[in-house]
Design a protein that fits this description.
alpha+beta, 6-stranded antiparallel β-sheet
Length: 1882
Amino acid sequence: MSDVWRPTTQAKLGVAIYNYDPVGKGPEFLKLDLGDQVQIQEQCAGWYRGFALKTRQKGIFPASFIHLKEATVKNPGPNEVVEGTEDLLAQELTQLLPEWGELWQKRYFMEDRYGMFVTIRKVITELIDIRKQVLASTLPLDDMKKLKLKASGKIDWGNKHMGLDLVPRNEDGQSVDEADVSIVALHKMHLRSTQRQIDTSERGTVIRRGKFSQNRLSELLHHVHFCMQAFICNVGEESEMQVALYDNQEGRYFSERFVEKINRHGMPTNLNHLNNICCLFTDLGNSDLKREEAYLVCKIIRIGRMIPTVHVKDPKEYRRPYGCAVLNIAQLLKSSRDTAEDTKECQLDIYGFENEGDFAELHTHIIKKNNSKIKPLQTDRMSAKIHVSVRLLHGSMAQVKEENPLLFRSSDVPVARKLGFPDVIMPGDHRNDLYITLVSGDFQRDGKKAHKNVEVEVCVVSENGRVLDNAIVSGVSSEKMTLYRGVVLYHLNTPVWEDVIKFDIPFDQFYTSHLRFTFYHRPKDPSKSLKHGFSLAYVPLMQEDGTTLRDSTHKLFMYKCEGSVHKNLDPNIYIKLPWQQSEFLPPLPIKGSISYTGRESFEIRTLVCSTKLTQNVDLLGLLKWRQQPDRLEENLKGLMRVSGEEIVKFLRDTFDALFAILDEDADRSGKLVFQCLVFIIRLLGDRKFEHFRSVLDAYIQTHFSGAMAHKKLIEQLKCCLEEARVQTSTEHNNVRVMQALQYIFKFIIKSRLLFARATRGKGAQPFKESLCELFDSFNHLMEVKDESLLAIQAAGLQHFSAIIQEVLKIMEPDEFAVIIKQFIDSVPKNRLVRFKLLCLGHIVNNDIFRHEECRHILMPMLGLQLASHVKGQSEDQLPKCFEILGEVLILLQRRDVGKTFENITEIVNLLLIAVLNRVTTIEKTSTLWGHVVACFVAILSLMSEKHFHSFLRNFPSKDGLVEFLRGCFEAFYALVTTGSFPSDWSAMISVLNNTITISMKFFSESLQTQFQRGQNFNESLWKLYFDVCIAFVTQGALQLETFTASKRNKQMAVYGDLRLHISQRVLSMWNSLATEQKQLFLPWIVGPFMDMSLIREHEIRCGTIPVFYDLMVCEFVQTGDYRQVSAECIDKLDVHVSGAGKGDDAYMDLLYPILSGLCNKNRELMQAGALEFVENLTQLLGRLLDFRNLQDGDEYSISRMQTIFNLLQYYQETEREEMVIRYIYKLSSLHLQAQNYSEAAFSLLLHTSILKWEDLPVSAHGEFPSYAKARSEYELKELIFKDIIEYFDKGKLWECAIPLCKELALQCEMITFDYEQLSGIHKTISKLYHDIMHSVRGKAEYYRVGFYGTLFPPFLRNKQFIFRGKDFERLGEFNQMLLSHFPKAQLITFNTPPGEEYNTIEGMHMQVSKVEPIADDVDKFAGMSVASSIIDYYAANNISHFVLNRPVRRGPKSAGEFATMWVERTVYMTASRLPGMLRWCEVVDEKRLEISPIENALETMVSKNKELRALSLRAQKNPAQLNPLSMALNGVLDAAVQGGLANYENLFFTEEYAREHPEHILIIDEIKDLIKEQVIILGEGLDVHQKLAPEALSQFHKRMEECYEQMRSKYLPQAERRGQPTSASSSSGSRTPERSRATMSIAGTPTSQSITSGSPSSRRSMHRLPPDRYSTVDPASMVASTSPLSARRFTRSAGSGHAAGSGGDRAAASSASQAGYAPGATGVTRSSTMSSASRASAHIDPDKPPPKPPAPSSSASINSGSSGSAASSGPPSRQSVGSVSASAFANPSGLSTSIGSVNSDTGSMLSERGTMFSPSSGRLPPGIDSSSITSPDSAVSPPVLPKKQRKSVSSSSTNNEKAADPREEAPPAPLQTIVSQTSSEV
């Protein structure tokens, strides 16, 4: 098939339109998913061969599954690059959206973050729609640009939330290729993209985007959006709501008013405004936002009858006052942008007035809370209110509407403008608005009894008397009107209105019109109203001098007509009369049809906002200068006093007038005209008028016609410079000239071009000469070192660059470049540095710097200027220097600027070292850091091979070269280790790494050739080289394995794997060193190479791992061992694997084969144990990987703790003390998080075993901040001890805390003499003892857990552990806990051992079984009355052996349940004791044995007797506990279900059974004895029941008495029945029931008489069973069977199971046997020679306090010779054992012997817990040989950490002072000896 494959010519790029899954077709086929893009290379018979762009996998695929796309091919051939021809944004979306789709679901859906999941889904949908629009290409260019900006914002927002990299974009939002731009430009793009991410909303919509001017507008222009949401006020008639902004400090409105008509039902009369009563108050400036008392005032005008309650026949609608509401918006205006505070929603209360005359000032009374003037209005028994929302907006109107489409969904939102011009006047913003405020009036009664109801009517009248139609606007959104009628105030001759009216008068009628005010009296009855007014007043709009009406308050004359005043009144009657009272004295009465009376007045306030009319006389005089030439100088001077608002209105006319004057009268007025030009140009530099510069530019280009003006302007400018140099003019004027320099030159150059066009180029040379002379004047001015000229020189430098573009229109670039160089050089050194740099920056950004010839002229000067400041000590100018340097480097990267080799050489020679020094010294937190680094890297990226060689070889000295290389290495190291740029700037980081790779190639060559051989070898430089190279290779930004597929493919396509280049060079450089040189880097070099070898790249690993062998050889040659290398390998492996998360199984698979293979070749290393070291290192790596691979979270705490424990064990074995301490605190922290306080205490206890009670320096504090204050080992150990005691207290292991308290007390008492602390410690000890006796402590259950399956971690897989449950945690809860830690595991429901198939099954299976602890510490309480809380503790703690009983049925069913009931007993031995450093411990050995039915019966009897005895004692102490005793007695006595004890009789007590099982005869006898003992216990229990039972239980008790009598007569001989003395007690007198109960309650041993004169059966029992078989019936004594003392006694454990003779179910025996190992059960310890009766009386009361020990002299056994021989050579009697145990607990110091010695260090306690410390040898279960069980010591190497010698109380006074194991049974000493010795030591 390969012969017919041919390369494609057209089909190069395609996309899969179907899924293609070639299952079973072979590896040559390529799997495709829908949407995958493929690059096609060959084709054949309907098939394509190529690769997927996403995965780079190659193969063949069907052509019918591919949709071809147009593409361009770069570099055709095998390495061709194919790119689509579609829009770049569409290509980006095509690649990005599939990647988003995968991450979107994983990141948000899987993590249950539904809100963000839905948001991103909407963004993806929007981007898909945008892609369709882009591909359609149907939008206009502007709309397409906005669409792309919108898409780029959403892409950047999505990338941020998806955790993807930031895409560098240009100003248009288009993504760029980092290979095509400079790294400095790339850095700026990343900063801009980052800001764009910040400036986006919750769904990626850009909220502030645009060019500089738009952003400036958003800072200067502000708006208030008002919306009325509800109007809750019953006016009763039609009304009018007026809303405006009011300043209470100034006492005036500062905005137009918004008017909305409301009908009588409270709804807008305009139905289009329903639910949309909104208005935008616009044109607010920054000064308006600073108003301290800004309010929004809502006034309500009622439109209807004069008096609502008076009904008339023909009502007329009057405008009457009603109410007002006020909202304080000062804080809203001051709120910052884009915060929740820029929106305010509230309810405004509507207030009325007490007097109509106060209506105009009603809002001020509300603000001042003047309650005497206002009253709340009510509507339907509730307050009248207005619900409004107010929001502050910023920017131009177009920007506001674009950013807030919901607010402007209606296109006709009314706009209320500011009363006056805004802070920014935009060109084209034409206004011609006149605002008249009706202030007040003063009228006469004119013979009327009451005051008038005055109504004012306003209209605009032309000169011919015609009233202009629709010239009045009462408010925004209201219709224009011809006549405006004011508010009528009832019976008030002095009304105050404060009513603002807007007039919209056409410009052409403004000059000839006037305003007329007509006044009417309106009575209540409209029929009596006069049709004509009683007075009039007027105001002309233009003044006689041609200016408009002044902005002021005017008091108008009031005129009366003889006839009547009506709207058709001829204006000629009054137009010639005075109109305001301030013009002259009160006039005489006028004769004719009109007259004046001085007793009436009317006051108005006017404001003109017009861009066409002026109120300034000077400006008007300049515009008409030809009419008054004699006032020309006065008008020119007056122009410079005119406000900017007036000038910009007539900008073009003003310039025409000025240049006309300059042409016609230059000699007389030339200087003044030049000053006026400077004034206007500078005025346009103000930000309020900066937008009029475009108007000025348009004027210069299209309207300016002064062809001769250039000569005059050059002459005036030169004179100005000369005057400034000789200081004959004011500094202020000269600075203004410099600020206007740009537009002066624009006028000069434009004038010259006009002149040249008119004269066909004449006068070019004279003009150029005059221009050169002008620049010479600039240079002369700059040379002067006069402080008084600093301002003008600074202004010259600041504005000189602005003329470059204009001068280039008439001068060659290289000529002007020389002028520029001379200008910069003319400035003295270290003078005006900031302005000089500012000028240089402008020059670099100018087109002149793009010319190759100009750069050759300017670059040396520029380089010297920058180098002097970069090298300098001052950092003030560094930002500007590096900004200029960055622009230069961006320019040199371009391909359209000519040759740049020489320019780069200048930069390298002048600036590289200076920039490098700044990189190494500048703080990373500095805002300049990123830009400095970008400049440094950009210089290196511009350097070619020739640049590198020339620079490195031409260093003046080797010392200089060393410093340079050192600086570069340090800079590179900082860049790759400290994260010089944010992690999502992948493009920036990739360019940086590529530049470092190229640079290190040349630096390596220089290092190898200059500093390797002989005395030139520089160790520190080589070390730094290895550091930076390995840090470079190991940086996260180069680990391709962690990249997404698209990012990895792009990285490989553009740069390749940069790690391979550097790693190969590092290995080559290392191998080039001699052995002696390599030895200088030991052991430091191990860490870097270890880090490098852990990279997930096979080639790097294979090359780096052999280096460790090389290092071992180097150290072995030098010292004869490799300890340093091995120790460093262990340390660094731990740091990199567990801390940094490096390494994997593949590395472990390489590590051992490579190193072991190399070591096997070196015999000397093999003899030194190299192979063992490799094995240990591999083992450590496995454990570290186990720990590292575990996830965080409580559900993984078991696995994490186990792996930490395994590591702790490893480091203890390898004597790595610092590592041990590190992991101690890791383990302790995990325990504390899980509230495992006891385990945390045991973990910290290990650290204390390392510390000494000495003032030694502390090597490690662990990870607990509270230990940081410790300065010595003594202090640290003391602090840890206190924490351990606290944790033991929280964990309720008070017995473990007491020895630590005693050790602390000993230090305080004997060493530091800190008695105050000592008193506190003793209080703590007292509290601990109190807690032991009285606090509730939950019973700890133990569970065996087996982990089976291949999915478990190796440290758990196919292993068994014993877990210690938490307090009151039962089996079900424990199972749930396990399943929460291993949610994928399944529980095995059967309790038989699982088969081998479970070990290899692919899954996770757990088997959980409850086990019982085998305590070996309870024997010490034999013969003593010890509290149950004490015995319960030792029965369930400090355990290493556990037993599991499983009932097994054997034999035919016909034989009966008791005959077939066998018990399979499994004894587990753990590696350490529990509790310990973990809540679980691994099972290291187990032994199974079977318990026959008769032995099971024996255990059941023992258990039931113990239960009955305990219940009886409990009932005596607490009568409330009688019910359990009643049930237990009834269950045994009235056994109605299974026959009770008769089952044992019928099964075991037959002759047939004895013949078949002769070996069980002794056991049968023992069961009979126990039955007799049970009868006695039952009788005593009945006595207790009889005494305590209430009357209601009398029949129940009588029934039990009857059953008891039957049982007693059957099983108990006459001599041993209740109430009669037994043989054992006959010598002591008769035995009454009370006496028997008392005997049973006595805690002690039987008397000597009971031992020596026991019954034949009891004496015979000493020879019935061997010791091991005898102890089989007592599970609690299984671990004690190896002791000589325990071989002659046994302890029966209490249980909760039924007796064999009870009426329980068929599993009674099984239950009893299962319960035989219940922890906390109180054992019955008896001598083998005791009789049944004496056994019954020798019971330990678990709830009674311990009695005083009997005196040794009173015991017959102690005084007898046999007792003495027993004490010295044989097992002691019960009295001596009881005495020892009692003495140990009577003396407080004796309690510690159960945990450790009194004066021991904590090492003895630790030796009993933890796998690294061997437990004491325990007593083994019966039938188990000690050699068959592996001791914990054999599984784990003995500890090598330093331990203190443990001390214990000697059992006898002998010469042999060997320390005894506290767990080892020893013959006890006499009581006096123990007490005296213990007291002396304490």
